[in-house]
Amino acid sequence: MNLVARFTALLFIFLPTLAFSAATREHPQLDLTDHTVGYMALVVFVVAYTLVIFEEQLHLRKSKPVLLAAGLIWIMIAIVYQQNGFDHAAEIAIRHNFLEYSELFFFLLVAMTYINAMIERGVFDALRGWLVEKAFSYKALFWLLGILSFFISPVADNLTTALIMCTVALTVGSKEPKFVAISCITIVVGANAGGAFSPFGDITTLMVWQKGIVQFSEFFALFLPSVVNFVVPAAIMHFFIPSGSPDPIEDEDLTMKRGGIIIVVLFLLTIATAVSFHNFLHLPPAIGMMTGLAYLKFFGYYLKRTVSDEQTYSENSFQESMDVESSERHTSKPKGFDVFDKVAGAEWDTLFFFYGVIMAVGGLGFIGYLGMVSEAMYGQLGPTTANIIVGVLSAIVDNIPVMFAVLTMQPDMSHGQWLLVTLTAGVGGSLLSIGSAAGVALMGQARGIYTFASHLKWTPVIALGYVASIYVHMWVNAAHF
User: Fold this and answer.
1) How far is it, in rounded angstroms, from Cα 425 to Cα 439?
2) What are the C-alpha distances in Å from 115 to residues 18, 120, 155, 159, 389?
3) What three-state secondary structure class fits 365?
4) 3-state DSSP assignment of residue 421
5) Which of 451, 454, 455, 462 is nearest to 56 (CA)?
6) pTM: predicted TM-score of the whole model, two decimal places
């Protein structure tokens, strides 16, 4: 008997009779929270997420354990439901979760493609070159890096924003490691705070928007609380920034390639298209983003046809047939602009991790654990306390599964409370360096300078900004409660 058969047999041996919590056999819902399979699913999820937490030490990409965990959890669920005569119940449930992921997947895929196109065209390099050549003082650079992180991350993702700003800090602060360390902290705080008041700033805000819980314009009610979250710790850290200015740097020529500004405009137009699809046509925003991808594809075609107007460069194409006609592929003309090989890089690990998290947490919710957590947190502690705890949890556990769990629970709370949990889940990750993708990435980029310990030293100051932003939200947005 092979391993799969033995595993299946063991499951059937330990499956006792279950009580149905649904009124009809057409819509069954089994309570598995006190069942062997429920406990096994929890163990699988905890083990997988432990491997995610130690990704850097194990050199194991975070998508691998959660992909396996999601599959195992749903295998166990399907076996239980089939044992009780509901052959398609698990299928219906998993399709619902998969549809939610699919919409977010295509939305993020288009956004990543545009960001990679901007990187390839040197848009962010030009910004970095401008900051370096202006020879600002350390204190001025500290504020510029934080403010730019705050205002770029609502459009670009906070990870890309943080990496670009950290490169500037490392370039100009090569002789002042203290400046680099504190600047990295304000970059992380600024990027996370800026992403909290925009549907495009973080995956958690995107999930809330696509669920229809908070409308596009309503996110801007979080602008002032987000500003407070960034300014309070930055104002305190300002006094610890070294005085003086960095030495002049003869940096390489960081000029923008042809079409860079147009791609930025096309990205803004794509965002407008996605918002219009959602607000006026009541279509999924992902459809608008895919339509916007056509803008980039046509402009890419133009750049390919006019490649002789710029210095040609070589890069390996990813699925070139998606963008180049058959007749073009057999010509000796230089290929020119192509961004699909960029999309085939590290971003896919994030997308697959996102898939694994949504499916695994969805499985735990189908088992019944999220209902228990919702009752314990929102029923007994109250929504305000629960939402503040969600923010703290997002500093320890990735905010994606935390927010998806809240959205799956669908606790009965006011609109102001939904805005509050959107804020706390977005900015809570700044409390620790491991609490957000931006912090983890900067620990690798500024290795030995920006560390877990260097960030932890400023956690009380960041926590002060966290608490202040919550109070400001409950004050300025009192009408939403």
Assistant:
1) 15
2) 50, 9, 10, 11, 33
3) helix
4) helix
5) 451
6) 0.79
